[in-house]
Amino acid sequence: MQKHYNNSRMTKSTLTKFKLTTLAASLLLASSTLSAQEEDTRAIAERLVDEHFQNSTLSREEQIEELMWFAKAAEPFRDMDIQTVAEGLTTHVYESEVLAEAFSELTGINLTHNIIGEGDVVDTMQNQMQSGNSIYDGFVNDTDSIGTHIRYGTTINLSEAMENEWADYTLPTLDLDDFIGLQYGTGPDGSIYQLPTQQFANLYWFRHDWFTDPEIMAQFEEIYGYELGVPTNWTAYEDIAKFFSEDVGEIDGTKVYGHMDYGRRDPSLGWRFHDSWLSMAGMGSQGVPFGNPVDDWGIRVNEESQPVGASVSRGGATNSPASVFAMQKAVDWLRDFAPPEAQGMTFGEAGPVPAQGHIAQQIFWYTAFTADMTDPSVAVTDDEGNPLWRMAPSPTGPYWEEGMKVGYQDVGAWTFFDSTPEDRRTAAWLFAQFTVAKTTSLEKLMHGLTPIRESDIFSEQMTEMAPKLGGLVEFYRSPNESNWTPTGTNVPDYPRMAPLWWQNLAPVMSGEVTPQEGLDKLAADLDSTMNRLARANVFDSYAPLLNEEEDPQVWLDREGAPKPKLDDEMPQGTTVPYEEMMEAWMEAGTRQE
């Protein structure tokens, strides 16, 4: 589901605005006959807009109209106690501390938006799916689990619900076409199962001030024979990593490093790899969002969307030459070019390190850290609080082909289960929409920097913020943004299968086993788990149907993934000047306007 910048899109936006204006006009005509209760509700709506939601792509009157709709739709659920849950990102904390309180005051629903650890969210969700007990009335769950939700038959099909039991409880101005990540919560049948409420990408991060220093630039070109710039392939990334770690060594008396990563045996190590590391090297198939028939986990599916294997011997690519190459580079770069302590760090511990000022670049950096990187007190901003760093597309590996996904994007999305009583589920659905409505979404974006709406990304407010955000706004305004995607529908049970990554690849990072050995074990474990689940008959649809094992060479000789080993996995390094790349991004973005 690519974004298109054309007249039909603009017509939809114009139509939506016309509807909003008409609704606002109707409200003004009827305002003289409002009941006392309606007047009280309107007063609350006006105050909420003025106190909390001044930044919006809607006019003040349009915002008030949206809020009045929520208050009226919520009347059957007044005084209910509703519990929803999300992980502890800044965006979700804002939802919990500001939006939940505003929603409760406006609607009379006692809404608590609980903030717990990401792993706890997944465990609790899994418990509710398996037990049939209603633990929370609504979950914010990553769309990485979309393959799980389409198969077990317990997740509410939002498309069907909005046409049926939620027809009167779905915001008329929800404007699904405006969501930038809706495709990631959509099943093979085109039905929406998860509604995005935040998203962020993993991109390349680098010290723009160092990369544009004339002396450093001249030194790099003298040694490596080409210009220092944003690397477009893994060879250039390695050259730059070596350059800063060994050839430069120190800047202003501080030891500097050309790479940052983490390697501790921990569940977060799994994110490092199943969040598209193998795909960035070029392991999977062409096709966005997930790669078809082989996705970014290396899992192949048949034409009926049934997983048939992760191992090369079954037509998968998890343990293919491209994957081995990717893992070897992860090991080498962490050992040779990152701070020594990085080997023992987790995701959370490694995340703040580039802000300390001694890291030159990071190939795989989550934009969720953008807010932390813009704090005027950190070492990577100047005296006026402007970033000394920039973000750009991550370089791709030698197996990557045009038309493949480029990197990973995390999309947290509202998810509901049939084990929750319908009235409680509907009340939670109202809050879910409140957190993504145009009245609230832009203000939430400015707090958490995790966009979900195209209209917000192209707003005047984000244009003004862009210079402080190091390329975030330009990235999301580019049509190329849709090439960064989450885990897809090929993974039949994300909660069960994700831990297999860190359990099998931690020994690779520590040097206990080779990349090939670790990936062979991972692929076999993925296949075993899928086969076991299929035999247990736990899936409502799209159940795995594994291919019989063959000589891996049979599959490597066929066109597409899995791909045979290249004769030259490290071709000439290539870079592009950051400013030149940004011009292309900005030019692409203007198509919206």
Strand content: 5-15%
Number of strands: 13
Q: What best-fitting shape do the alpha-carbon axes yield?
A: globular
- End-to-end separation in angstroms reads 20 Å
How big is the Rg? 25 Å
Multimeric state of these chains?
single chain
Return the average pLDDT rounded to an integer.
93
Structural class: alpha+beta
Low-confidence stretches: 1-20, 27-32
Count of alpha and pi helical runs:
25
Helix content: 40-55%
Major sheet size, sense and barrel closure: 7 strands, mixed
Q: Can you walk through the features of this model?
A:
With 593 residues, the protein is an alpha+beta fold. Helix content is 44%, strand content 10%. The protein contains 25 helices and 13 strands. It has helices at 7-30, 36-52, 60-73, 90-107, 118-131, 146-152, 158-163, 208-211, 214-224, 234-248, 267-274, 277-281, 321-337, 347-350, 370-373, 422-436, 441-448, 454-457, 460-465, 472-477, 494-497, 499-509, 515-535, 552-556, 578-589; strands spanning 81-87, 110-116, 138-142, 195-207, 230-231, 250-251, 254-255, 300-301, 307-309, 361-366, 389-392, 409-415, 575-576. Strands 1, 2, 3, 4, 10, 11 and 12 form a seven-stranded mixed sheet that branches. The radius of gyration is 25 Å and the shape is globular.
